[in-house]
Design goal:
The protein is an alpha+beta fold. It has a domain of 33 residues. The chain is flat and about 35 Å long.
Length: 53
């Protein structure tokens, strides 16, 4: 299956990683260049329990 993930924060990248391990074709897009911040950065780099899948 081809999957597009919008958002390259910690949740998007972790989801992409798991989907790749499961054999899917995954593309991740993000509006910001890699490592420049965003939701994960704005959350002080912490993962909240609301991020659980």
């Amino acid at each position: 299956m081809e999957i597009l993930i919008m958002g390259g924060g910690v949740v998007g990248v972790t989801t992409a990683y798991q989907l790749l391990k499961d054999g899917h074709q995954v593309t991740v897009i993000d509006r910001h260049p890699p490592g420049t911040g965003g939701a994960s950065y704005g959350n002080a780099g912490l993962i909240a329990t609301g991020h659980s899948i």
